[in-house]
Automatic annotation (TrEMBL), chains A, B:
This is Methylmalonyl-CoA epimerase. It comes from Streptomyces coryli. It is an enzyme of class 5 (isomerase). It holds the Pfam family Glyoxalase_4. Keywords: Isomerase, Metal-binding. Signal peptide: none annotated. Its EC number is 5.1.99.1. One of its GO terms (molecular function) is methylmalonyl-CoA epimerase activity. GO terms for biological process: L-methylmalonyl-CoA metabolic process. SUPFAM superfamilies: Glyoxalase/Bleomycin resistance protein/Dihydroxybiphenyl dioxygenase (SSF54593). Residues 4-138 form the VOC domain. NCBIfam families: metmalonyl_epim (TIGR03081).
Length: 149, 149
């Protein structure tokens, strides 16, 4: 069951410049930063609020590390903007299987590793009214806390 | 101060079809539905979670009521997808003035009425790294509760 908006993924050309925009304009600060080589992105998570399911909602700023990554290609076509949205669940495996059974294309055979040690998968935007949709199961709280600093 | 992701605004061709997609695929249900004549949209709010500032996060599904509305023109150009993101604040007036003073274009001189009696304004996407960004102050809880059913 999807119990929160986990994050909004925003593609940008320059992560540092965009982080600085969000800091200067709104006061948002970086909760976590990492490079995901598999996805070909350098990313910053800005924590906006906590959520009623015990999780949190973030902005995820994404700079491609190579032009042929999914985000790199998307950015070349669309320019900067909202790349995807993500819902949080305690069970990304079960939920993605259930959603696949409803005829929505799930992009990975098995969930992969996402931000902060989470497990993630994506749903095909053409099956979701144009919205690239991610499902996320966060790593345990202990892992979250040790990753954060 | 912006204290939550208030909603993600998603433009669609047919509100009823898109509401049914979100219900069937994820189990999300309509919390509130209304027509905003000024914005030229028929919209449904799907409540996803409550937030640590006492508010909530929603998906806002938007169907244009006329082709020459902002959402209608956007949809003709881009197709279905994420139209804007919105942050919640207790003080949309003060925050939009402060953000204007930082050189970001605020699209309304004064906040206008948004979903569920909220007061809203928008920031120019070209000043926000490609993201059309809304600021929202929710109506009082009493008004929210009476609107919800």
């Amino acid at each position: 069951m999807l119990t929160r908006i986990d994050h909004i993924g925003i593609a940008c050309h320059d992560l540092d410049v965009t982080v600085e925009f969000y800091r200067r304009t709104y006061g948002f600060t970086v909760f976590h930063e990492e490079i995901n080589e598999e996805q070909g992105v350098r990313e910053a998570m800005l924590k906006i609020n906590e959520t009623s399911d015990g999780g949190a909602s973030y902005l995820q700023l994404l700079e491609p590390t190579r032009e042929d990554s999914a985000v790199g290609k998307w950015l070349a076509k669309n320019g900067e903007g909202v790349h995807h949205i993500a819902f949080g669940t305690a069970d990304v495996d079960g939920d993605s299987e259930a959603i696949r059974d409803k005829g929505v294309r799930v992009l990975y055979d098995e969930p992969r590793i996402g931000s902060m040690g989470s497990r993630i998968t994506f749903l095909h935007p053409k099956d979701c009214h144009g919205v690239l949709t991610e499902l996320v199961t966060a790593a345990s709280r202990k892992a979250d806390a040790s990753d954060a600093h």
